[in-house]
Design a protein that fits this description.
Length: about 325
């Protein structure tokens, strides 16, 4: 553990997972999120927009509340990557253990991401931007994606008519929806894991394109899995150099046998990390912090897949509004 930072402030929509990874790695942290759930309260000192401030969720609200909390460094999570100006405000007076505002503005822009991928010889789904004057080919399937979204929320099939201006049209591709996690030091990257994403599963109370979990490793034949690892590693290495990425990042993609179609980069710790921390014995939060001193872990994912167990997580959505009573006894 690097004890230079006492404590580290964690900020995002929900911080239970990242707080758990930090505590497991031996880092003192204080967490600020929307929910302030019981699991988080048991892990570390925490504050909640909902419980402590009686405020609705907003990134600006989180950043305002962070001003009340003393910390020498800060790590942000979803969905602050969509708000570079707020990340700049959050980092005032603290060391930012995350990608900076300029990097966020570039890597979260589909046009910049597509150009970087094409320059490296990689692929990106055909995308139509508002005001481009291009019309979608009606013989193919298209998705409308809002600019500021996360977890698949707001994504919908486009059928006809003029799409809203606050999003893009992107070709809908067949294949396995996946994600990769990697840690970077601005120049080099280490692939930490790949997963098969669970999306829109009715068994977990959701539908459409809503994210609802991960399986690690993906359910692929061994030779196909190795091919996926090789291309994912090449892509994250290229994007790290193209954008100067730091810390732990995520990559969402569609896997079509022999080809990774990158969908987006999540330039902050992603939801799948706890699977790799548990299954492979990684200390992911330690890797994140140490990367900002230029240090990357010596980690071989292929060997970890041989030695480690499979792992999975699912998010269960309530199918209707409910009120749950005191759950503190559940942990017993």
């Amino acid at each position: 553990m690097n004890s230079q930072f006492q404590p580290i402030l964690l900020v995002g929509l929900t911080m239970r997972m990242l707080a758990e990874l930090a505590v497991r790695a031996g880092y003192p942290v204080i967490a600020l999120d929307y929910f302030g759930d019981t699991d988080l309260q048991a892990l570390c000192p925490s504050r909640s927009l909902l419980r402590d401030y009686n405020l609705p969720y907003s990134v600006a609200g989180l950043v305002n509340a962070a001003g009340d909390l003393a910390a020498s460094a800060v790590v942000y999570s979803a969905n602050l990557e969509n708000y570079p100006a707020e990340v700049a405000r959050l980092s005032q007076g603290r060391r930012l253990l995350g990608n900076g505002p300029e990097t966020l503005a570039q890597v979260r822009d589909p046009a910049h991401l597509a150009a970087a991928l094409y320059a490296g010889g990689f692929v990106f789904p055909e995308t139509i931007w508002p005001g481009s004057g291009h019309a979608p080919d009606k013989t193919r399937s298209w998705l409308w994606k809002p600019f500021h979204s996360g977890g698949g929320h707001g994504i919908r099939l486009w059928r006809k008519g003029r799409p809203p201006e606050d999003g893009i049209l992107q070709e809908r591709l067949a294949g396995m929806v996946g994600s990769a996690a990697f840690v970077a030091n601005g120049r080099e990257a280490v692939l930490l894991g790949v997963t098969e994403q669970l999306v829109g599963q009715p068994a977990f109370g959701t539908s459409g394109f809503h994210y609802c979990g991960n399986l690690a490793p993906p359910r692929l034949p061994p030779d196909e899995l190795m091919a996926l690892l090789a291309e994912a590693r090449a892509i994250v290495s290229h994007l790290t150099q193209a954008f100067g990425l730091w810390g732990v990042n995520g990559l969402d993609f569609i896997w079509q046998t022999g080809r990774v179609w990158t969908l987006e980069v999540n330039p902050r710790p992603s939801a799948s990390l706890e699977l790799f921390d548990l299954a492979y014995g990684l200390r992911v939060f330690e890797a994140h912090v140490q990367s900002f001193s230029g240090h990357l872990p010596h980690f071989g994912l292929e060997q970890a897949l041989v030695n480690g167990p499979a792992a999975g997580k699912a998010i269960v959505y309530a199918s209707r509004d409910v009120t749950v009573g005191d759950t503190r006894d559940w942990a017993a």
